[in-house]
Structure formats: structure tokens, C-alpha cells
Amino acid sequence: MDTEEAPMAGGAAVHVLVFPWPAQGHINPMAHLAVAFAGAGAHVTFLHTDHNLRRLGSAVAAASPRLRFLSVPDGLPDEHPRSVADILEIGRSLATAGRVAYRALLASLLQPQPGGHGGADAGTGAGGGGCFPPVTAVVADGLLTFAIDIAEELGVPALAFRTTSACSVLAYLSVPKLFELGELPFPPGGDLDEPVRGVPGMEGFLRRRDLPSPFRRHGDDHDVGPMLQPVVEHITQSFKQARAVILNTAASLEGPVVAHIAPHARDVYTIGPLHAMSPAPATASAASLWKEDDGCLPWLDARADRSVVYVSLGSLTVISLEQFTEFLSGLVAAGHPFLWVLRPDMVAASQNAAVQEAVRAAAGNSKAAGVVEWARQRDVRRHRAVGCFLTHAGWNSTLEAAVEGIPMVCWPFFADQQTNSRFVGGVWRTGLDMKDVCDRAVVERMVRLAMESGEIRASTQALARQVRRDVAAGGSSARELKRLVGFIGELAMPIQCAAIHDFELLDNSIQS
């Protein structure tokens, strides 16, 4: 969507602070939204943690003179791994050290600021130019409820961005009903294929194994595990406090699900897939925490159309050496060339160099397999040579595959991925759900089916056409984004009127 010349509604000077949870899967869609806001004429401050901003380095050169990058500390030491196992610790630290720095920074942004740096001791920054007006709205990750609360306390309207699928959000919102019906907690040793009641619109469809991974905790009504309760509280609180909830989804994907979510929020905006509505180069440079390897693109250029299996399990998934071996053996047996993204920290208790060598050795031919530590994901997934996508079913990856019409083999790792995988296989029928199985024979069979099934390919192409209509001019997502831009513009008007009133009072006081 080209909004570069479309000013914000009402002619107000709009300045939006965008604050994602500090993980790749959360940063990506919120970076796309930031670019969309800047293209619509708003000034945008994108707030990283200090650790992530240092990690990005010079890559955060501004994509627009109206977009800049600032940061606050996450409260953890530099050497902290910040891995998937540390999510709860990261959240607690952000809610303490990050809260204090965020409040100070946001308070400072209520005054006009230079474009390059925020002017607050709590924040460091890069990018942008000129003068930024006072901040007029905050769009915070739905997990950062303190960011929403503090904004409203300071008189800044706040919106919540849920970066996961709508179907997983609805599952979390349904937790009280699941307890009431006795669906939670799961009994120890219970059948994970047992259907679950209590999630609206998914009765008889969702199984226990399809609910978000924290639901698999055991205990009584007061002990639902160390991960489930905090996430449920975050979602419930952010829905109650925020002026609106933003979802990175489309009507063609999750329209009926969104209808069940809407009564829980003041308003809901479905504006996805955002990556298909935002210019890729400008956004990717400011979003990727990993160094991207473009060397795989010439390798793909040399492959036949739809001949390559692209394998990427995301930025957080960790697998055992045994699981790695099963995946590798199944891929080799499937008989198709494959390109595998293997992060240095992905295979537990092993050396990444040895793992990469095992891929090459098992393939038996350097032309049959490619290995990179991180790829330019969007360019790879849309490459003509890619025939299917073996994925963790993270929401960003699921959306990207939907837009490009790529069949999926889903092996979800955690969080919303279990629910996404079920929808891929059972609702959209654009791929296969391989959750809870890591066996070479199953990998081989499912990869072959995804690569060779005309029925699956036809479903993926049909869905891709519909999603592209959603994001095109006049489509449902494009209209929703325009509505959101208008709402953000309207929010700026009372703040600026109040600021003018305060200035007039001060001026009259001085003159008297």
C-alpha cells in the first residue's frame, strides 16, 4: 500500500511511538506498521531495547525522515542469552527496569524533539531528521501492558498490537470458559487428541494439542503453569485498557475468528498481512536481528521452478541433536533439493559448524542442499524455485507463505504456533500439520506430499489470490489500515488542543 503522499486525517501533527516486545517475530510486523504510519504522514518513534538497537547497529538507518529509532534498557546484562527459555525473565525485567526508563522517555517526548535523538536520558537513538512533534499516540505490543498503562497515565492514547494469530488470541481469551467447562487444566497423561469445547467457532475442531503450548501445563484451577496465567492476564488487561486492538490478519484468513474477538475490545483493526502492505527493503534493514546471507539466492536461481524445500524454524526454535538428525534424514529421503536456515544457537548441545557439515555430507552433493545461518526470508519465500516450506508455523511465516501461495509442512514449537498449524492443515488446507512428531519417515512423507500434491497447491494459490485482494487498494485490510490511520489522526487533535490551551494559560500568566 503506497501511503507516502497520504497525510494523516484532520491535519494534526501526528507522532506515534511504536514499542514491540524485543523478539524478532514481534519486531517484524510492528516495523512494517511503523513504515506504513510514516508513509501516511505521521512521525514515528520505533522503540527497541538497548541490547537490540546495539545488535542492529548501522542497519537502523532511517527508512524515512519521519521514522527514527530509540531505545530503553531491558534490565538484563549484556552477556545474557535472551533465549526462548528466558521469556519470563525478560518480561519481568522489562516490567521493572524497562518501565522506569520508558516512563521517563515518553514524558520527554511530550515536548517537541530533534529527529535524531530523543532528548531523554533513558533513551538512545538513531535515524530520522528534523523536528519531531510531541507524541500523540502509543502503539504497544499487547504483551507490554505497562507501556499501555503508563501512556494513558501520561495522557497519551494507547493501542495494543497483538502480533500473533487471531485464532490463538481467541484461545487465550477463552481460558475462563475452558476452566468453567473443565477443559483446563489437562489431566496428567490425558489424550492430546481429545476435542476441546469452549473456544467459540472452534467447537469440535480444536484438540488439546492444537491449543497454544502453555495450555499443556498440569495442575488445579489455581496452578495453570508458569506461562499460561501471565499471558492470559496480559491479553485481558491490554484489551481492557487499550483504545483499540490491532491484529496482523485479514478477513479472508480469520474473519469469523475476529468477530468473536471484537466484543472483548473497544475496537479491532485487521490490517494484515502487513509485510505485503509495506516496502520490504526499508523495513527489513531496521528489523532483522540476524545478519542475512544473500548467498543462497544465486543457489536458488540455479534450481528448477518449485523444486526446493525451504526449511526455517524461526528465530527462537531450539531442537535436539536427535530431532535434527530425524529432520535431516527425512529431507534427504524425500529426494528434493533443500535450503535450510540453521541458526548458530538452534541445535542444542552441538557445534553449528558440525551440524552444517552433516547437512552437506548427508545430501551427498553440495548442489542438493544449501545451508545458511539466516536468510532474507521474504526474498527466499517468494523465489520461483521454492516448492514448499517446512516451518515452525510462526504467524509471520504463516502469513508470508499465504501471500506467496507456498504449501507448508508445519512443525510448531511453542506459543501460538500449535493453533496456527491446525488452521493451516484443517481450515485453509494449505499444508500439513506435523505437530508433536519428529520422525524421519513422517518428514519424508509429508515433504513429498506438500511438494507434489496438486490439491494442496490449488488451495494455496486460491488463498493467496484472496489475501492479495485483501491488501490491494480497496481490499478489506487496506480499508482497515486507512481507518486506523484516520483514528490515529483523530487521537492527536485533543492532545494538541490541550497543549495549545496550556500554552495560552502560561502566556496569560506571564503577561499578567
UniProtKB/TrEMBL annotation:
It comes from the Eukaryota. SUPFAM superfamilies: UDP-Glycosyltransferase/glycogen phosphorylase (SSF53756). Keywords: Transferase. Pfam families: UDPGT. One of its GO terms (molecular function) is quercetin 3-O-glucosyltransferase activity. Signal peptide: none annotated. The keyword Transferase applies. PANTHER family: GLUCOSYL/GLUCURONOSYL TRANSFERASES, GLYCOSYLTRANSFERASE. This is Glycosyltransferase. The gene is LOC102721292.
